[in-house]
Amino acid sequence: MRQAVLICDAPGHGAQFGEEGTFDRFPDETPDRLKVEELMHLFAENEINFSVCRLHPKCDKMISIMKDRYKVRNGQAQTSTFDSNVEQEEESKSKSAPVKR
Predict the structure, then answer these.
(1) What is the mean pLDDT of residues 69-74?
(2) Residue 56: inside a domain
């Protein structure tokens, strides 16, 4: 089993990843011209499990895009996995939410 882990404290370069008003010195593309969407396809194709630990909620949009691109390649679901602490936090919040009466 191969595993990649990404720890992010800010969205990646590209206007599609950040929330409106987020500063990005490279809003059109990364300086090295890599495309996150293509990289996620490569991880999935090579059956590399991918985990994301996000340190700031501003990364949520980017993580959602990454997960969508990872899950499906050429119309086929992947057998490898993509997980993040975003889902774990959402589950925790829903379990600890007060009951309204």
Answers:
(1) 71
(2) yes
Taking only the tens place, the pLDDT of each residue in 25-58 is 766 766 667 788 888 888 888 888 889 998 988 8
Q: What is the DSSP string of 9-61?
A: SSPPSSTTTSPTT---S-SSS-TT---HHHHHHHHHHTTEEEEEEESSGGGHH
Dihedral sign for Cα atoms in the order 79, 73, 49, 22:
negative
All residues at 6 or more sequence positions from 61 whose CB lies less than 8 Å from its CB, including other chains: 11, 17, 18, 19
Q: What is the pLDDT of residue 56?
A: 86
Is 81 within the bounds of a domain? yes
What's the structural domain count of the chain?
1
